[in-house]
Input
Amino acid sequence: MSPKVDYRVTVIGEAIFSVKIEYKAEREASIDWRVIKDDIDFTLVEIPSDVEEKCREYVRSAGLIFGAIDLIEHEGNFYFIEINPNGEWGWLQKPHNIPIAQTLCDLLISYDKTRR
Output
């Protein structure tokens, strides 16, 4: 049985930042990476385009313009865990050079309130 792979997918409008979460050392597979962030690497990656589009669609259908989505990949299949409409992202921004703040600011500045 292959291990699971965790992903944090941050959706901002149409922009997507997918981060693969990898353990630096062998760990118990059942441990939630959000509880213990030591010995973890976060790598910006591309996920399959159909999974990206499902993430965008979910955020839109929830009436949101931002969502922090947790996914698990196991044996080539992606599984939705949760969405947080106010999810943390600062821990990805600076140490991993992911332009989440700039993208979020750009979207908010250009957001047309009549589109609701």
Observations:
- The two ends are 45 Å apart (CA to CA).
- DSSP finds three helices and five strands in the chain.
- The chain has a mean pLDDT of 86.
